[in-house]
Specification:
Length: about 325
């Protein structure tokens, strides 16, 4: 029977109880090794913010298609803005049944990071019912999630027997991209996927999902899909391929997909944390013996992301694990 990713109380990170903090570190370590996924509660995100950003997603996708296309991510090279339905394909055809809107941190004109990987000036559709409200909510969400990501990385450092602030320089001026996503309802069965089986390619992802369900994570021990059902107040955290590479494959970047059979529209907001573009990712010292060779050569964040983006939109598969999934589900 498939085992779903655990729900972990993140509250001890903000407290003073040493034993509870140690238990949190151990729970996260086990989740990273076993699933590459976990959900966190008591993360101190303002209680009004999740619904506020989901409402903005509902409003932006309610705009007419010809309006949304004015803000297409294909108009300029930094990949920000609207992504039409079925623009992306993971695995087999048909293409993914979702539409999205990409947003980065809000930069002032002339900022030195503008023009780096997927970083630039955001598009704020003037046709929104409250464009100022959309902009302020998006930017507030981006700031809060970046802070939470730093907290999560500080726990991850401890799971790897590193000093708590070991990842701080990686998180400084990080390439953080959020996507507002809408999944139309789809019939049960058949080959339709809201998003096909894939792994994320950055450092980690923090996902807000609404209450419709549909997210599934591959359980490698049972060779089955496990439902990551929505938990009130929880956020889903998963590791990306960069983290798996960084830990010399000690931690898992796991396959996941979305099948929206709720009969309702599904909305979610993934926040992708990929690190400072100039940061050099090389095997973490605690993830190999002193005499052991690293499995992967060093690479900068930006070099890694550019190559993975080309793979993703070129329809390239996700390796041996995807073959395992295909053989188990056909």
């Amino acid at each position: 029977m498939a085992t779903a990713p655990p729900v972990i109380d993140f509250g001890p990170y903000y407290g003073d109880d040493v034993a509870k903090k140690a238990a949190l570190v151990q729970q996260v370590r086990q989740a990273c090794e076993r699933h590459g996924f976990f959900q966190i509660i008591n993360h101190q995100i303002p209680s009004d913010l999740p619904e506020a950003i989901l409402q903005q997603a509902r409003e932006i996708f309610s705009l007419p298609l010809e309006v949304k296309e004015k803000y297409s991510r294909e108009i300029d090279p930094v990949n920000l803005g609207y992504e039409r339905l079925r623009a992306q394909t993971f695995g087999e055809e048909p293409s993914d049944l979702k539409e999205g809107f990409f947003l980065c941190r809000d930069f002032p004109p002339g900022h030195p990071l503008i023009g780096r990987f997927s970083l630039g000036l955001n598009k704020y559709p003037t046709e929104m019912p409250d464009v100022a409200g959309f902009q302020s909510t998006v930017n507030r969400y981006h700031t809060v999630m970046a802070d939470l990501a730093l907290d999560i990385f500080r726990v991850l450092a401890q799971t790897l027997d590193l000093e708590e602030h070991w990842f701080d320089s990686f998180c400084h001026d990080s390439v953080n991209i959020m996507r507002l996503l809408r999944y139309p309802p789809q019939p049960a069965g058949g080959r339709e996927r809201g998003i096909g089986a894939h792994t994320d390619f950055g450092g980690l992802t923090i996902l807000l999902q609404d209450d419709q369900g549909g997210l599934q994570v591959w359980d490698r021990e049972s060779s089955q899909w496990a439902d990551a059902d929505p938990v009130p107040g929880a956020l889903v955290v998963n590791l990306g391929n960069m983290m798996m590479r960084w830990t010399n494959d000690r931690y898992v970047s796991n396959l996941h997909r979305v099948i929206n059979t709720s009969g309702q529209e599904r909305y979610s907001v993934p926040f992708f944390v990929s690190g400072n573009p100039d940061y050099l990712v090389e095997c973490i010292p605690s993830c190999k013996a002193a005499t052991e060779a690293a499995k992967y050569p060093p690479i900068t964040v930006e070099e890694w992301l550019e190559a993975r983006l080309a793979d993703t939109y070129g329809g390239v598969g996700v390796g041996e694990l995807s073959k395992e999934v295909a053989s188990a589900t056909h």
